[in-house]
Amino acid sequence: MFASMFGMRARIALAAKGVVYEYREQDLRNKSQLLLQSNPIHKQIPVLIHNARFWAHYIDKKSCMVVEGRCGVREGKKELVEILMQLESQLGEEAFFGGKRLGFLDMALVM
User: Fold this and answer.
1) What are the boundaries of each domain within the chain?
2) Would you state the pLDDT for residue 67?
3) Which molecular-function annotation in GO is an example for this chain (predicted)?
4) What parts of the chain have a pLDDT lower than 50?
5) Which residues are bridge partners to 96 per DSSP?
6) pLDDT value of position 69
7) 1-49: which CATH topology?
8) Can you tell me the distance from the alpha carbon of 32 to that of 83, in angstroms, rounded to the nearest whole number?
9) Which of 1, 4, 48, 56 has its C-alpha lying 20 to 30 A from 73's C-alpha?
10) What's the CA gap between 59 and 76, in Å, rounded?
C-alpha cells in the first residue's frame, strides 16, 4: 500500500541498499493469496519475500521466547505446540520446507 509508512520504510531501505525488487500494492480489504501465504501469521504488509526468511525469523523469535523461559512452563509448552503446528501446516507433505532439498528454513529449525 503506497501510503503505508511501513511500506515506505521498506522501499527507502531497499533503495538505499541498491536492492532491485518488485513492488506490488495490496488491497488490504481484499488481501491477495500471495500476501496471505507470505505472511500467514500477521497477514500484514510490508512483506519482503526472499526464500524462507519470514519463517526463519518467526522460528527465531518464537522459539527463543520459549527456550529462554520468557513465559511460564505451561505457557511455554502451549506456545511451542502452536509454533510446531503452524510450521507443520506450512510444510504439508514435503520432506523439507524447500521441497525435496534441505534449505535455509530447515536449518533454522535446528535448535
Assistant:
1) 1-49, 50-111
2) 61
3) glutathione transferase activity
4) none
5) 99
6) 63
7) Glutaredoxin (3.40.30)
8) 24
9) 56
10) 14
Positive/negative CA dihedral, 45, 106, 19, 64: positive
Query: By the 8 A CB rule, do 76 and 69 touch?
Result: yes
Grid coordinates belonging to 7: 511500506
Residue 26 amino acid letter: Q
Query: For every residue of the chain, which 3-state class applies, written as one string?
Result: CCCCHHHHHHHHHHHHHCCCCCCCCCCCCCCCHHHHHHCCCCCCCCCCCCCCHHHHHHHHHHHHHHHCCCCCHHHHHHHHHHHHHHHHHHHCCCCECCECCCCHHHHHCCC
Contact call for residues 108 and 98 (beta carbons, < 8 A): no
Grid coordinates given for 90: 506450512
Start-to-end CA distance of the chain, whole Å, equals: 36
